[in-house]
Write a structure and sequence with these properties.
60 residues
Length: 60
């Protein structure tokens, strides 16, 4: 696994973190995680979807 894959997976952790900072509630974190999951699945390579979802989980 290359460094780029890890950086992209870390990038998918950003929406839940931003939602937590702005919304201050669990609901906004779940919405941010849902958006990040949708982006990860739609834009990612099928071989790395699991890695992207792990990145979302770490952000949540």
């Amino acid at each position: 696994m290359s460094l780029f894959v890890i950086v992209v997976a870390a990038g998918h952790a950003i929406p839940p973190v931003i939602a937590a900072a702005l919304g201050k509630s669990k609901t906004t974190v779940f919405i941010g995680a849902g958006i990040a999951c949708a982006i990860a699945v739609m834009s990612g390579n099928p071989a790395f979807i699991a890695t992207d979802i792990i990145g979302v989980g770490l952000g949540t």
